Amino acid sequence: MMKAFFIERYGNKDRVRTGDLPIPELRDTDLLIQIHAAGVNPLDTKIRDGAFKAILPYRFPLILGNDVAGVVVKVGAKVQRFKLGDAVYARPAADRIGTFAEFIAINEADVAIKPKELSMAEAASFPLVGLTAWQALIEQAQLKKGQKVFIQAGSGGVGTIAIQLAKHVGAIVATTTSKANFDFVKRLGADIVIDYKTEDFETILKDYDVVLNSQEGTIIEKSLRVLKPGGTLISISGPPDPAFAQEIGAKWPVRMLLGVLSYRIRKKAQQQQVRYSFLFMRASGEQLGELSSLIDAEIIQPVVDRSFAFEATKEALDYVETGRAKGKVVVTMR
Fold it and tell me: Does 215 have pLDDT greater than 80?
């Protein structure tokens, strides 16, 4: 048995409880990882509240947690790339989450060797936000040197990594944050910094090639308007679109629902001759390995705001929910 933080049905923070659950069984291509640290993400609170229950049919009890760093303690019969004792990090596949625990089983294809210079806590803070930034800017937007990119919420978990990655590519980076974080995001590489409390980014930015949207409501439509024709808005906060429904193999009622939810923003994008797409990042050990090279070369550095003891996982979730974290929040097991 192992200690874990889990839910037995969807609901608010009072649904999260701690207790003993069985250690996961290994599939042939799985690694059993003894968890040293786990990243805490807004995604964890959304899953807890049932925000994705239509598209991710989890079974209960459901252990929360989407980022991990730890040590391989057991390998499946067909594992080829890892051995016992390897220090690794990963974002588990969306249907196999559960890093708020002492152990997790993950397919070796989703795992990478931990960068040597990072602590376990730093490493655990990185996979989900690193892969989100990579898949948005490199894979989907194909961001190039000299292009202009607007990265919202620059001091947040995704923002801190996306700014660094965009600057590495050679893009011109604009971002939003509070006045108190101006110097912080400039050190990360932001060229244009907008105070979201007192300034309207739509009046300052124009003819941008790419927007990485992490906000909801009217912000997303305003974001479309700062793009030039042919530009791309990639949203990690929704609404999900039909392409995403197809990607996850959703049944037709879900495909119809997501089509309706995203119809307005897709129509607006079409009218303005720009592209809208929703990104729900996926696990990838290969891409994480690419990012590890950038970490080893000191081109990208994880940003950890606060570290909580494993026993205080619920408090860590509460802190993330305030939206005030500068970079990432982690829980440490050992």
Answer: yes
CB atoms within 10 A of CB 219: 18
311: Cβ–Cβ under 8 A, 6 or more apart, which residues? 18
Asked if residue 334 has pLDDT above 80, the reply is no
Quote the domain boundaries for residue 115: 2-125+302-332
Residue length of the chain: 334
What is residue 55's predicted lDDT score, i.e. its pLDDT? 82
Contacts 24+ apart (CB under 8 A), 12-15: 12/48, 12/49, 13/45, 13/48, 13/314, 13/317, 13/318, 13/321, 15/48
Stretch 225-250: mean pLDDT:
92
Query: Does residue 39 share a domain with residue 16?
Result: yes
The mean pLDDT value for 235-252 works out to: 88
Helix orientation angle between 42-49 and 313-321, rounded to the nearest 10 degrees: 100
Residues 108 and 156 both lie in one domain: no
Count CA within 13 A, CB hemisphere, residue 60.
13
Same domain, 120 and 9: yes
For the stretch 173-208, pLDDT in tens is: 999 999 999 999 999 999 999 999 999 999 999 999
Kindly state whether residue 73 falls inside one of the protein's structural domains: yes
Number of domains in the chain: 2
Residue at token pair 């050992």: 334
Check residue 299 and give its pLDDT.
Answer: 98
Residue 319 CB neighbours (<10 A): 17
Is 47 part of any domain? yes
Burial tier of 208 (Cβ tally within 10 Å: 0-12, 13-18, 19+): buried
Q: Point out which residues pair with 276 in neighbouring strands.
A: 233
pTM: 0.97
Buried residues in 167-204 as b, exposed as e (16+ CB within 10 A):
bbbebbbbbbbeeebbebbbebbbeebbebeeeebeee
Pair (17, 142) in one structural domain = no
Residues 59-104: pLDDT tens digits? Answer: 999 999 999 999 999 999 999 999 999 999 999 999 999 999 999 9
Is the domain of 249 the same as that of 308? no
